[in-house]
Design a protein that fits this description.
This protein is an alpha/beta fold and 229 residues long. 42% of the residues lie in helices and 15% in strands. It binds pyridoxal-5'-phosphate. The site of pyridoxal-5'-phosphate (PLP) has 14 residues, from strand 8 and helix 9.
Length: 229
Amino acid sequence: MEATIAENLNAVKARIAAEAAAAGRDAAAVRLVAVSKTHGAETVAEALDAGHRVFGENRVQEAAGKWPDLRARYAGVELHLIGPLQSNKAREAVALFDVIHTLDRPKLAEALVRLRDEGVALPKLLVQVNTGCEPQKAGVLPADADAFLARCAETWKLPVAGLMCIPPVEQEPAPHFALLRKIAARHGIAELSMGMSDDYPVAVGFGATLVRVGSAIFGRRPPVAGAGQ
Ligand SMILES: *Cc1c(COP(=O)(O)O)cnc(C)c1O
């Protein structure tokens, strides 16, 4: 019989705790973002019924269709945007999400600043770094990260709580996690969003504070919706 979502959640949390212990870290310093993209509300509700409250979605539109209702049914939900954000969707994203992992462009930073100037409370912000320098992938290039983070602090006065990366699929993730940690350290940035179903144990060893795990919890994603993300 296939494991239930509750069992999968427990297994992932146990693995996080074991890897944290092995690295001499406090397991409570690693938060599990359950990536529920492409899964319907009733599937997500199984994780909520199991007591989990921190979720990740990669599309604003999909989250807008799914989460207002789930938030009304379950208290204490924390929703993370882990997919690319277009600046024309910033207003909607800011209203829906508690954390945005994908700040990576001046245009988006400026859209967020405009919202803040209107009095809108901004979510916690993480800057995505394209550690593999992949042309098709979002994120600031590692060579541009220092300048972008300086502009966030000085020009835009946007507090950056963390950095996020998605290593290239065909490479060892460890050097990418190490690079992200190094960039964060030189800016005094605390949160590291790194590690997915295949590599979150490695990420915990490299200091991840947020791991984004989808298929190890919810099973394989339906093939049509969300393909390519
Ligand atoms: C889909 C996705 C994940 C989760 O991927 P799994 O391999 O299913 O764990 C994590 N991060 C991002 C940015 C994603 O788009």
